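Hey team,

Sharing the DUF4442 domain-containing protein run so nobody has to redo it. Sequence (147 residues) first:
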Amino acid sequence: MRIYPPLLFQRIWVVGFDKGYKGVEVRIKNSFLNRNYNKSIFGGTLFAAADPFYPLLFHQLFIKKGYRLKVWSKSATIKYLKPSLTDLSFRIKLSEEEILIAENILNTTGKYTAHHPIDIYDKNGDICVSLMNEVYVRNLDFIDPNL
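Structure output:
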């Protein structure tokens, strides 16, 4: 993903994925390529940085378990709390409980939808952006026993 053009040209860098795709660390470089007129990182870049990762984690986790899926970000809300004048970073991690809940829902209803938070920090450890990403996961092999 480090050379995926929508991320690369926005200066979004995937530092690495946790073992088993249970988490990811991402950095966003403040660069002339993504800077707005206030010299802070453009809001669209911040949104683009956060958008794909929860769906990607869920997809990879459940594909490895043998599921056939459709996964995407269904919606998101973003709050810009402080100008992002330095490089930024965030880390997201799925807990075993979140994974078990999602799998149970996929096996009983066929689709999982939930909101997951992302806080994006500057170099001083201050939160600049707080985002809530709604993830949609559909189990393509689910057959409703009530039909």
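Residues 82 and 128 are 5 Å apart (CA to CA).

Ping me if you want the raw files.
A.
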